[in-house]
């Protein structure tokens, strides 16, 4: 029979696997503080080439369909704390009386660099809107809006769909267009009414700084719809790219600029309040997860301290070497520290990885050694002993040569940094070892660990593939633009979404921006690594061997004789 804790943990794992992304998006929505955007008219000539290249293919399509450029608008992000700028090119078709808005999408995870929404206005002041790939993210609309979304793969199909969508009974199409001031007023009016509609169903509320979402069933449905729509539309775009036998130069350039935009967003530093929030949320989730495992308050406190000491080692090493945007957060199976540095020496990476487990091992050894001759230093409850053992075990496990543990990353840095095939093979072998360990240990934490690593297998292969391609190119192509150029032109990546390509580019840049380790570092680094890795293995082997001999010596004489006779008279193999 399962215990209550084991059953709860099993249910928790199932919920995470089924609803993990929805839960994550739900938490993000709760974190968002948003506001009304500030729309302003700008001179098109002031736009940088990067933005113009993003919207150019869509604009050329609109012009081919009889649309005429009217106004360029810019607005800030609706998310408070996000300084990203958005741009909208407003077009009007005087024959069909259709308004088109080409909007850039400069945020991480965007599936398109820019998209088009179509609107038809009626004499009644109502409006018909056709969007693409976003309806599941719109829980409700203002009363004057008829909204449609067909999840189509091209701007032409979406435009044709809009011409059908707008044929609404008793509605007469208005032939008026907007002035420059009028389009700004309309955009402000429209966004305000969408927020009011959200408030009317209890999904958002007003605050002193703007708005924020309210925890509710409606918000959960919104998060679920957002994930569902994202997956659905990404699949459509993947099929579109896979089915294209040839991409135009403008399509390629637009996609390349979309990837570059997402890379710029990834490189922007996170605010301190953002880091503090995610540290707190991840810590609470970590404690909740291990509470289901049945850990006591003392065990939980010691585990958190051990992990914090480990991550502080990484953190301080990063800060010492000049890494920026460093932060610590917890995971279901541990914790992690991240930081950024454009150019890194292999020595710096090596020290950063070693600086996590090394302090915990030394502290654990120090406590145990101190106890040998000075037992009065130890507390009566045994907390210090428990901490020492836990610190040694956890940090030593982290030194094992398995990716993505620190030991595995150390080996990658020293031996596999410029060997992409070797890196991928190491990833596969590590996954295999973890699967075997999961089956043997029957540990739900290992299950989550294996699942997450399994999800990354495809991307690891793509990264290895791209690094192999780059190794055959000129050194001048081993930069951000060269990487993006391959991602948008090579058919091997045609199934990848824009967001996936941006993540691949980020990981490849990390490898290329890390210097090649010197022979001295390889030899010295491996010696130091083995110095800490090998002794516990020897101790464990000797202990098992000693225990085995001890058990044999305690056997009755007749059993010893039987074992000896069996071993000498009947060899365990056939010659």
Automatic annotation (TrEMBL):
The chain crosses the membrane at residues 6-32, 276-308, 320-338, 350-372, 384-403, 424-440, 446-463, 520-544. It comes from the Bacteria. It is found in: Membrane. GO terms for molecular function: metal ion binding; metallopeptidase activity. It is a multi-pass membrane protein. It holds the Pfam family Peptidase_M50. Residues 555-575 are annotated as: Disordered. GO terms for biological process: proteolysis. Its cofactor is Zn(2+). Its main location: membrane. Keywords: Hydrolase, Membrane, Metal-binding, Metalloprotease, Protease, Transmembrane, Transmembrane helix, Zinc. This is Peptidase M50 domain-containing protein.
